[in-house]
TrEMBL record:
It is an enzyme of class 6 (ligase). The gene is acs. The lineage of its organism: Bacteria, Pseudomonadati, Pseudomonadota, Alphaproteobacteria, Sphingomonadales. Belongs to the ATP-dependent AMP-binding enzyme family. One of its GO terms (biological process) is acetyl-CoA biosynthetic process from acetate. Its cofactor is Mg(2+). HAMAP family: Ac_CoA_synth (MF_01123). This is Acetyl-coenzyme A synthetase. It comes from Aurantiacibacter aquimixticola. Mg(2+) binds at residues 530, 532, 535.
Length: 641
């Protein structure tokens, strides 16, 4: 499964060739100060920084560009509104393909941001206040983020799929006194009661806010609480609203992680370093060229939406698509319709979406004109080589480089990825470190491992986009990332480095299986299963086994229209044996209609592990589960074995 796909011939205009990567990467490691001060020039500073990174991992204290001042809204909006006022900043594609869409030029975006910023001020928001944004995927969601940045408020965006309990928990956690929301929204023609969810959250114990800013979207009739709720259109004004002078280390946002491994953490990012990182990774990773349309299908409630729907594209003066809907409405070709309609050049999505769409057949793709596509990206989970190839060959017609970007909420932006036209690609491998990133693989004792080897993935030195703390809980920050291997940032992921220096994420280290003394990543076994033409998705966990220590338990979903059978059961076990070896032969295959996923679309293996262990009492924090009812079905399936 480790074969290589050569990168397409370098384009004359490409942002980076393989030689340039080598030279620049070496400089970023050997002369970090001058390198990062140079990169800081991507942004307009009110006071240019004289220093780059000043950080320590023991004790944990991280700062970048600390003596510089700037405003990220100025950088994302105002400077482009001045230099290219008519260029398109956002293209809005509504849930209903027949409803009117919208495009916003940088001039219009500036006007809307000023109006929203003035409304926030009128609501009582001041510099440093935490503002919770709970919005559909509409332009106003991104505008609310930018308006916060403009006035120095700290945004905390909550994905629109979350429940009132989750909203309440996040409001309390960061003591946020303000909420921006909409009357309602729709996803896949299904109404989502945004305002009602906020009202329910605000009715909960211990939750209290000073103001709610309401955006009219669906026109639904919603109750308005006197003295607390204000409509944006009543509060907004076009008055002058200058961009606040922010220190580089002033907080920009708090964002809660997906909750794949436990209770979500409120990760804090600051202004200057994050801005440089978002701007730089966007430009290099996607080989962004001025004028191109970029579409990241993630919700702004995830870090991917922060860095690659809002900040990355706008900091580069680019055009970003905001899509309100879902991949399967009105049919499974919706993504491809959007690309066709808006002539998207650069497309970025998650393996979960790719696998789901692949399952529905190629005709949805081949019936659309995708010739505008130039670079394809993926993020969120390891992508199985099988899904990678489908993305490459069917969606990208074999012409588009694929970037498999490994990163985390905590890293602010891309950390490991190949670069288009600069690097060969290996399906299933994220590739090489981004500039300034020093990956390190260590064994369980913390000894660093050299050469082609598997280990715990750590990062040795700080980078500008690194999270500074967990909001209000620096001890948890230290405990989660810096205590397992003191002096290093520990990612929580397992990883293999091959002989070419490519990195292969094998899954969370907690998910590593040890069968008869052989350690293996869940990703490998899953990829071997997904290779079978009848398998859509697989999730693999270990469970206690008398003889082997751990046995291999595989949850498998099948392609549309395929039924489980004894023959398929035998076939799949054979297939894994053949691909990886007899030691990886599954002990149990559990056919299921679906897999439990976080609301960001990641498989929640910790729950699957409990079910495989027949331990249903303590499933842990399940608040970020997309479809809790699946769990009961899985437990039933387990008990019937
Ligand atoms: P929590 O931290 O609450 O458990 P989470 O780790 O899922 O949730 P995110 O920050 O959204 O929250 O996800 C980061 C993780 O996603 C990474 O640590 C890694 O496990 C996985 N990941 C992201 N991109 C990739 C990729 N390209 N290849 C493999 N894994 C990836
Ligand atoms: Mg994580």
């Amino acid at each position: 499964m480790n074969d290589t796909v050569a990168h397409p011939a370098p384009q004359a205009s490409a942002n980076c060739t393989s030689d340039e990567y080598r030279t620049l990467y070496r400089r970023s490691i050997e002369e970090p100060d001058s390198f990062w001060l140079e990169q800081a020039q991507r942004l307009d500073w009110f006071t240019a920084p004289g220093k780059a990174g000043e950080w320590s991992y023991d004790p944990v204290d991280i700062a970048w560009y600390a003596d510089g001042t700037l405003n990220l809204c100025h950088n994302a909006v105002d400077r482009h509104a001045a230099s290219q006022p008519d260029a398109t900043a956002f293209i809005f594609e509504p849930d209903d393909p027949d409803a009117p869409g919208r495009t916003l030029s940088y001039r219009e975006l500036q006007a809307e941001t000023v109006r929203m910023a003035n409304a926030l001020k009128a609501l009582g928001v001041t510099k440093g206040d935490r503002v919770t944004i709970y919005m559909p995927m509409i332009v106003e969601g991104a505008v609310a983020m930018l308006a916060c940045a403009r006035i120095g408020a700290v945004h905390s965006v909550i994905f629109g799929g979350f429940s009132p309990e989750s909203i309440a928990g996040r409001l309390k956690d960061c003591d946020s006194r303000f909420v921006v929301t909409a009357d309602g929204g729709t996803r896949g023609a299904k109404p989502i009661p945004f305002k009602a969810n906020v009202d329910a959250a605000l009715a909960m114990d211990g939750v209290e806010v000073d103001g709610v800013l309401l955006v009219r979207h669906t026109g639904d009739d919603v109750p308005v609480v006197d003295g607390r709720d204000r409509w944006l259109h009543n509060l907004a004004s076009d008055d002058d609203c200058p961009c606040e002078d922010m220190a580089a280390e002033d907080p920009l946002f708090i964002l809660y992680t997906s909750g794949s491994t436990g209770k979500p953490k409120g990760v804090l990012h600051t202004t200057g370093g994050y801005g440089v990182w978002a701007a730089m990774t966007f430009q290099y990773t996607f080989d962004y060229q001025p004028g191109e349309v970029f579409w990241c299908s993630a919700d702004i409630g995830w870090v991917t939406g922060h860095s690659y729907v809002t900040y990355g594209p706008l900091l580069n003066g680019g055009t970003s698509v905001i899509f309100e809907g879902v991949p399967n409405y009105p049919d499974h070709g919706r993504f491809w319709d959007v690309i066709d309609r808006h002539e998207v050049s650069l497309f970025y999505t998650a393996p979960t979406a790719i696998r789901a769409l692949m399952r529905e057949g190629d005709h949805h793709v081949t019936s659309r004109d995708l010739s505008s596509l130039r670079v394809l990206g993926t993020v969120g989970e390891p992508i199985n080589p099988e899904a990678w190839r489908w993305y490459h060959e069917v969606v990208g017609s074999g012409r588009c480089p694929i970037v498999d970007t490994w990163w985390q909420t905590e890293t602010g932006g891309h950390m490991i990825t190949t670069l288009p036209y600069a690097h060969d690609m290996k399906p299933g491998s994220a590739g090489r470190p981004f500039f300034g990133v020093r990956p390190l693989l260590v064994d369980n004792e913390g000894e660093s491992l050299e050469g082609a080897v598997s280990g715990n993935l750590c990062i040795e030195a700080s980078w500008p986009g690194q999270a500074r703390t967990v909001y209000g809980d620096h001890d948890r920050f230290i405990e989660a990332y810096f205590s397992t291997f003191p002096g290093r940032y520990f990612t929580g992921d397992g990883c293999r480095r091959d002989e070419d220096g490519y990195y292969w994420i094998t899954g969370r280290v907690d998910d590593v299986i040890n069968v008869s003394g052989h350690r293996m990543g869940t990703a490998e076994v899953e990829s071997a299963l997904v290779l079978h033409p009848k398998v859509a998705e697989a999730a693999v966990v270990g469970y206690p086994h008398d003889i082997k220590g751990q046995g291999i338990y595989c949850y498998v979903t099948l392609m549309e229209g395929v039924e489980p059978s004894n023959e398929l059961y035998t076939d799949l076990r054979q297939q894994v044996r053949k691909e990886i070896g007899p030691v990886a032969t599954p002990d149990h295959l559990h056919f299921t209609a679906g897999l439990p996923k976080t609301r960001s679309g990641k498989i929640m293996r910790r729950i699957l592990r409990k079910i495989a262990e027949n331990d249903y009492g303590s499933l842990g924090d399940t608040s970020t589960l997309a479809d809790p009812s699946l769990v009961d079905a899985l437990i039933e399936g387990r008990q019937n074995r």
